[in-house]
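Hey,
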Amino acid sequence: MKIFSSQILFESKKENHLIDFSSQVEAELKKSKLKEGIVFLFAVGSTGALTTIEFEPGLQKDFPEFLDRIIPKGKYQHDLTWHDGNGHSHVRASLLKPDLFIPFSEGKLLTGTWQQIVFVESDNKPRNRKIEVKIMGE
């Protein structure tokens, strides 16, 4: 088994910013020259998360509205300690998780037709973000 390592760097614009970075992952897979295996992605930081979703305008509105309903802004112990107003951001990112595995075959990601790889910005301000990429296979 071979391992290819890289990073994807980008900037988020605001809280609840969804970023489709599927094409960047595909480019990294192509660079790896591996044909069969798995891509592991890890969002560095405690207020960002990874998921897959159909990246279309309706869901780009629905998903953040859902997060606002289930984990609203408010009083969190984190905010009382650090006074940064992003306690909800940490909880949201923890719920969604910072990592994602995607299988690939014949050098192609095995995602569905309407399934994109998405970063979810949970912090209450723009951030410089880094995704660690590990591609393992043959």
